[in-house]
Design a protein that fits this description.
elongated; Thrombin, subunit H; 2 domains; 277 residues; alpha+beta; 26% strand; six-stranded antiparallel barrel
């Protein structure tokens, strides 16, 4: 009829009550009568049990609150550490962005035409096309055909422009073509996109002096890129006996996997129209 738990609770209450009553009786008795000694012998074990139980319960309770306090302190320390790590990460990102912008501004001073700084906000996931989207468009003076560059070298050219955004075809795209020169020997050819990180340098005559490590720059003859901008270096060179042209591989100076900010070079007529009210 009664649960085991209820019986234990009632038994405990009765035990404590009897203990209190007997302690009261024995404490009022000033003599060392036989009743007092019997009562003491009966009460003492129960008193010891109650005392130890209360002490044990108190220690557990204090230990529990100590653990709760330690847990809360640990959680607060974890949160503080995570906040510090996040702030440090943000600071590092700001420092890296600041360094990149300083390089862009320094490079901008070396250009004769006006430029517009833009941020890369998207990349074409296709394997066949190497294009990116930047956050500047016609409202900023951009139009189709404008060159996109970095301090390290040329990146590509704008192929589409809306009011606020533009699409840029990178020089590693297979549809890209850049008229170029070997800076040292002035050997001329066409830079064509080949892969994710390389280009082909086509139509370079074998009679010209070309060596591994030569720097390749824009010739300015294609009407897109100003003359003398860096493209990449000759990383592979071979000759076929039946061909009058070299087979040349050029590795661009720009790391296209880390493309974040770029400069778009405006044409003089674009500058004039953009400055008109």
């Amino acid at each position: 009829m009664f649960s085991k738990k209820m019986v234990l609770i009632v038994g405990g209450v009765v035990l404590i009550t009897v203990n209190v009553i007997l302690l009261s009786v024995t404490s009022k008795s000033q003599s060392t009568s036989g009743f007092g000694r019997v009562g003491l012998s009966f009460v003492a074990p129960f008193q010891e049990l109650v005392t130890r139980s209360v002490r044990f319960a108190r220690e557990i309770w204090e230990h529990y609150f100590f653990l709760v306090s330690v847990y809360q302190e640990n959680e607060e320390l974890k949160k503080s550490l995570n906040d510090a790590i996040e702030k440090n990460n943000q600071w590092n990102e700001l420092k890296l962005a600041n360094d990149r912008l300083r390089n862009l501004l320094s490079f901008q001073k070396s250009l004769t035409n006006r430029v517009v700084a833009a941020e890369v906000i998207g990349k074409d996931p296709s394997v066949w096309f190497k294009t990116v989207i930047i956050d500047k468009g016609k409202a900023d003076g951009l139009q189709k055909g404008l060159p996109v560059v970095l301090p390290q070298g040329i990146a590509g050219q704008a192929i589409e422009a809306s009011d606020r955004y533009s699409k840029v075809m990178l020089i590693i795209d297979r549809n890209s073509a850049v008229d170029a020169l070997v800076q040292r020997s002035r050997a001329r050819g066409i830079i064509k996109g080949a892969s994710a990180d390389q280009c082909r340098f086509e139509f370079v005559l074998r009679k010209n002096d070309v060596q591994i490590g030569d720097t390749v720059v824009t010739s300015g003859f294609d009407g897109v890129y100003p003359k003398g901008l860096r493209i990449g270096h000759v990383s592979d060179l071979s000759e076929r006996s039946s061909d009058i042209f070299y087979e040349i591989t050029v590795t661009p100076f720009v790391d296209f996997e880390k493309l974040e900010e770029v400069l778009v070079i405006l044409r003089p007529e674009t500058e004039a129209s953009a400055s008109e009210p």
